[in-house]
Every structure is written in structure tokens, then in C-alpha cells.
Write a structure and sequence with these properties.
Layout lengths: L1 H15 L7 E9 L7 E8 L5 E11 L5 E12 L4 E7 L6 E9 L1
Antiparallel strand pairs: 1-2, 2-5, 3-4, 3-6
């Protein structure tokens, strides 16, 4: 039954001219500090799909020095070709101690 559903879904996508949804991930996520200034959030958005990513929303949770969540930050990355990657950088206006990827949404 499961095989039948997969075949039916593939046939439906082909009939509708559908393409696979873009697939994205974030690597090398870091907080970089220069002197006593607030940190800069950097990372790389990797497009592992077969379609261009027109816009991706990267949501990152920032943590304080005691590892308590502070707030979520949104970084938008645009125009990443299929199989390519794009470095992003976001200056922060608070003294975060750590960052963790929460979600990547592809538009």
C-alpha cells in the first residue's frame, strides 16, 4: 500500500509539473566577536535541492552566558542556486553568549 501511495504521489507531481521543494540547511553557525563590541552572527546557507532558493528565513535562538534563551533572530538569505551555498552575516545589538539554529524556512 505504501509503495502504491508513493507511486501515485510521484505521478501526480509529474502531471502537475511540480518540482521538488528546495532543501536548505545551515552550516558553520557562529557568534564572532571583535573587541568589546556586540557579536556578529555568521553562517552558511546550503541549498541541497534541485531548485533555486529565492528567499530563505533563517531563525536562530540566542542564549546568554548562563545558557538561557534570550531571543530569536531572523536572517534572510536570498538567491541561492541549486547545489550552491551563500554566507550570511548579521550584526547583533545584544551580548549573546551562544547561538543555535531553530528553523530554516524556504520561500
Amino acid at each position: 500500500m505504501q509503495r502504491f501511495l508513493l507511486v501515485a504521489l510521484a505521478a501526480l507531481l509529474a502531471a502537475c509539473g511540480g518540482t521538488a521543494a528546495p532543501q536548505a540547511d545551515v552550516t558553520d553557525l557562529r557568534l564572532q566577536r571583535r573587541g568589546t563590541a556586540y557579536p556578529t552572527l555568521t553562517g552558511v546557507l546550503v541549498n541541497s535541492g534541485d531548485a533555486q532558493i529565492t528567499s530563505a528565513d533563517v531563525f536562530v535562538t540566542l542564549y546568554d552566558a548562563d545558557n538561557r534563551p534570550m531571543e530569536d533572530v531572523l536572517v534572510q538569505v536570498r538567491n541561492v542556486a541549486a547545489g550552491d551555498s551563500a554566507r550570511f552575516e548579521q550584526r547583533l545589538d545584544l551580548a549573546a553568549g551562544a547561538a543555535k539554529l531553530k528553523y530554516v524556512g524556504v520561500n
